[in-house]
């Protein structure tokens, strides 16, 4: 039996590095994991006034997460933090209070940037947001992927061997993390 993992690529751009990394991760995943890659596209803005009758897109997103066995965030860094669309998705999924769709789910965080810092501030933002609304966060290995601009070919396939090794080590560690918390 494979654990169902939702991978949230935190960018809306159709050729985003986050989406390419998430898709590469899905290809590298061991047979114990089945990864479904999604983006925050189509999730309407969180507004607490709507909680009594949540929009269908909120309910569908929450249900997808609730049915999963874990979540991996793959985020770019926008202005030293996560993109607003990713924060909105987290806000939608974490409500209503005390009923977060992330509760008890093992979580992974991968940040990325074409620059030298690898989106470390975005990852740290998620590390600040998620405790209290999620399950256990994978602590090691950390994944702050830098210089990702030349890591993919024109079809979006991962071609940078050094990045492939990092992603393989990460997804293998995440598989062990999920098994530990569901075993």
From TrEMBL:
Residues 4-145 form the NADPH-dependent FMN reductase-like domain. It comes from Bradyrhizobium campsiandrae. Gene3D superfamilies: 3.40.50.360. This is NAD(P)H-dependent oxidoreductase. InterPro entries: Flavoprotein-like_sf, FMN_Rdtase-like_dom, NAD(P)H-dep_reductase.
């Amino acid at each position: 039996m494979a654990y169902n993992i939702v991978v949230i690529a935190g960018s809306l751009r159709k050729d985003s590095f986050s989406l390419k990394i998430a898709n590469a991760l899905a290809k590298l995943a061991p047979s114990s994991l089945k990864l479904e890659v999604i983006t925050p596209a189509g999730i309407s803005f969180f507004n607490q006034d709507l909680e009594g009758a949540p929009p269908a897109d909120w309910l569908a997103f929450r249900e997808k997460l609730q049915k999963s066995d874990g979540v991996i965030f793959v985020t770019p860094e926008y202005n030293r933090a996560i993109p607003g669309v990713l924060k909105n998705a987290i806000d939608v999924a974490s409500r209503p209070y005390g009923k977060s769709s992330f509760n008890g789910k093992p979580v992974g965080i991968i940040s990325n940037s074409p620059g030298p810092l690898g989106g470390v501030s975005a990852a740290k933002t998620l590390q600040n947001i998620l405790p209290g609304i999620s399950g256990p966060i994978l602590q090691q290995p950390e994944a702050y992927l830098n210089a990702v601009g030349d890591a993919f070919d024109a079809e979006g396939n991962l071609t940078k061997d050094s990045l492939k090794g990092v992603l393989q080590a990460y997804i293998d560690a995440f598989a062990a993390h999920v098994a530990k918390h569901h075993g």
